[in-house]
Amino acid sequence: MAKDKQIRRKKIHYRIRKTAVGSATRPRLSVYRSNKEIYAQLVDDLKGHTLASASSSEKGFDKNSTKVAQAQVVGKAIAERAAALGISDVQFDRSGYLYHGRVKALAEGAREGGLKF
Q: Which of 3, 33, 36, 103 is the most exposed, having the fewest neighbouring CB atoms within 10 Å of its CB?
């Protein structure tokens, strides 16, 4: 059962990546969700560089809060780092995860921080 879920997510991820291409002016906001942490990266696919990243495993993040609250803080952090680079528009890549829960909270946090999808 778990293997089927992984295969399904990978298929969705490949389908998304066919159209989602990040550039220096409009990078791809890639989300990775593990069981304990959540990670976000701004990626320039044309050069193959990560412009900025944020995760809930960094120092300064509250480990006692819920995972959804942590995801929202990570979204705000990636938005701040993007603003420091002069980036306001991004292309959201949910990496095959359903758009609810932690992925949705990260997206809403990034929007609150000033990013436009």
A: 3
- Between 93 and 17, whose confidence is greater? 93
Report the alpha-carbon distance of residue 2 to residue 61 in Å, rounded.
30
Could you give the CA distance from residue 34 to residue 23 in angstroms, rounded to a whole number? 26
CB 106 within 8 A of CB 72: yes
Question: Which stretch of DSSP H or E encloses residue 45?
Answer: none
Distance from the Cα of residue 37 to its chain's centroid: 12
CA 74 to chain centre: 9
DSSP per residue, 63-105: TTS-HHHHHHHHHHHHHHHHHHHT--B-EEE-TT--SSTHHHH
Domain 2-112 grouped into CATH 3.40.50.620: no
Reported as a single tens digit per residue, the pLDDT across 19-73 is 778 777 889 999 999 999 999 999 998 899 999 999 999 988 888 899 999 999 9
Asked if residue 55 lies in contact with residue 77, where contact means CB atoms within 8 angstroms, the answer is no
- Mean of pLDDT over the chain: 91
